[in-house]
Design a protein that fits this description.
Blueprint: E1 2-8, E2 13-15, E3 29-32, H1 54-57, H2 63-83, H3 88-95, E4 96-100, E5 102-104, E6 107-109, H4 112-118, H5 121-136, E7 140-145, H6 149-154
Antiparallel strand pairs: 1-7, 2-3, 3-4, 5-6
Length: 156
């Protein structure tokens, strides 16, 4: 029988390193309700196909139509680059339970909504990105072979 053992399991209370938090007397923690599965990526936008759209099928070959096609291609490229970015607010909404021991400008930050509303955008982004990287780390498991008690006694 195979026995699955956990060797390295992530802690649900994550202490981030950004802005010297680890060195604080009481470091702030992001407490996860769950960790994302390996295939959960939280894209900021969906990727789009340039040539597989109703817009391209309606082009007539005129100069105006060609200009609109160039604009469409550029806009689609920008949208597709954005699709590779992580929607950190959605990630927090689905995976973070609460924030402990964090405040900014005298205001306590306890909820996911507080995190993005109270913190400056750059700070929220840096901390959330670090939390996302931590959450995406894999737990490490191993499998041991356990001999059943029947086979042990049958050899006697």
């Amino acid at each position: 029988m195979a026995v699955l053992r956990s060797l390295k399991q992530k802690n649900r209370a994550f202490t981030f390193e950004a802005f010297g938090n680890v060195g604080a007397e009481t470091p702030a923690k992001i407490v996860f309700s769950r960790f994302p599965l390996p295939d959960e990526t939280y894209p900021l936008a969906s990727q789009k196909a340039v040539l597989d759209s109703a817009f391209v099928r309606e082009l007539d070959g005129s100069a105006t139509s060609k200009e609109r096609l160039v604009d469409h291609v550029i806009n689609t490229m920008v949208d597709n680059m954005t699709a590779n970015r992580v929607d950190l607010q959605r990630f927090f909404g689905e995976c973070v339970e609460r924030i402990d021991d964090l405040s900014f400008d005298g205001r306590d930050i306890k909820t996911r909504a507080d995190f993005f509303a109270v913190l400056p955008e750059e700070a929220a982004y840096a901390i959330a990105l670090e939390a996302y990287a931590y959450a995406k780390e894999s737990d490490v498991f191993s499998v041991d072979e356990k001999k059943s008690s029947k086979s042990d006694t049958s050899s006697i």
